[in-house]
């Protein structure tokens, strides 16, 4: 693996899902090439424990880029922010990126990913538990052609993230499963802005508006192997049912005068925190 980026300059697809032994050492470093004369200055005392051959590997510094790489799946790897920065620095035209269950990643990785800009089409971030609204703002404002975003189980995210994602005019599929901090504001933001949305996964979020009588009829049927609690929480909207849900929520809101100030005009947006500057 150490030489993959070195040898395969025309590589278009690289899938390394569920390779838990893969670390940053397998990928290009974002460190700029430096003079060999500086080697002495970089020397450090030996660690107290024996180091492995992997730890002895020097940073993988490349003098070329992987401009042809379009699809990269690193789900369930031990890569860190530094590894993501190195990859993005060398593969600037990635369209489909899956880093789900990469538990070491933070907003720093999302800041690097945002430099992919309009090239990025699909971004899978499920179970990347350390990311926050700030990281979502980074890529949502920079990667305007995103069609698929999955932030399931990213429990630090709030309505602000959904508000930013709902502004993506190309967004077709969005997964918000078990993003527990969401409120009605998130749902109404999607209803008002995400007109291209074709599939919405929003099970087990606890959003009050999804508990309204009649909402369940717009949801797909839950899988038969789900237990009663899972079936009750199942909320996946697809196709015309997304449009049906949008119209239903709009009508419901109009019927509830007390709720109007939380949805329409300045009152709706007043409930959101101030916009986060990247």
From TrEMBL:
Residue span of region Disordered: 27-49
Keyword Ligase: yes
Top-level taxon: Eukaryota
GO molecular function, one term: ligase activity
Record InterPro entries: Leu-rich_rpt, Leu-rich_rpt_Cys-con_subtyp, LRR_dom_sf
Gene3D superfamilies in UniProt: Ribonuclease Inhibitor (3.80.10.10)
Cellular component per GO, a single term: SCF ubiquitin ligase complex
GO biological process, one term: SCF-dependent proteasomal ubiquitin-dependent protein catabolic process
Keywords carried by this UniProt record: Ligase
Entry-linked PANTHER family: F-BOX PROTEIN YLR352W, PARTNER OF PAIRED, ISOFORM B-RELATED
The name this protein goes by in its record: Scf e3 ubiquitin ligase complex f-box protein grra
């Amino acid at each position: 693996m150490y030489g993959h980026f070195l040898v395969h300059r025309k590589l278009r697809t690289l899938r390394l899902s569920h390779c838990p032994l893969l670390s940053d050492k397998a990928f290009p470093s974002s460190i700029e090439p430096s003079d060999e004369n500086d080697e002495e200055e970089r020397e450090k005392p030996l660690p107290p424990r024996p180091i492995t051959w992997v730890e002895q590997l020097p940073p993988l510094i490349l003098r070329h880029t992987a401009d042809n790489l379009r699809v990269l799946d690193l789900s369930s790897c031990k890569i860190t922010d530094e590894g993501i920065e190195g990859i993005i620095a060398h593969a600037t035209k990635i369209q489909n990126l899956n880093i789900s269950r990469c538990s070491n990643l933070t907003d720093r990785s999302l800041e690097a990913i945002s430099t992919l800009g309009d090239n990025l089409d699909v971004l899978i971030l499920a179970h990347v538990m350390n990311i926050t609204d700030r990281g979502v703002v980074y890529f949502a404002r920079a990667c305007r052609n995103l069609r698929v975003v999955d932030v399931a189980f990213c429990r630090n995210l709030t309505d602000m993230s959904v508000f930013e994602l709902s502004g993506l005019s190309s967004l077709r599929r969005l997964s918000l499963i078990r993003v527990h901090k969401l409120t009605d504001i998130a749902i109404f933001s999607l209803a008002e802005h995400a007109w291209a949305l074709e599939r919405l996964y929003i099970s087990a979020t606890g959003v009050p508006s999804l508990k309204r009588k009649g909402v369940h009829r717009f949801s797909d049927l839950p899988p038969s192997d789900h237990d009663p609690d899972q079936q009750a929480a199942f909320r996946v909207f697809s196709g015309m049912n997304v449009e049906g849900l949008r119209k239903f929520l709009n009508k419901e809101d109009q019927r509830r005068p007390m709720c109007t100030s939380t949805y329409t005009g300045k009152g709706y947006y007043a409930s959101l925190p101030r916009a986060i500057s990247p």
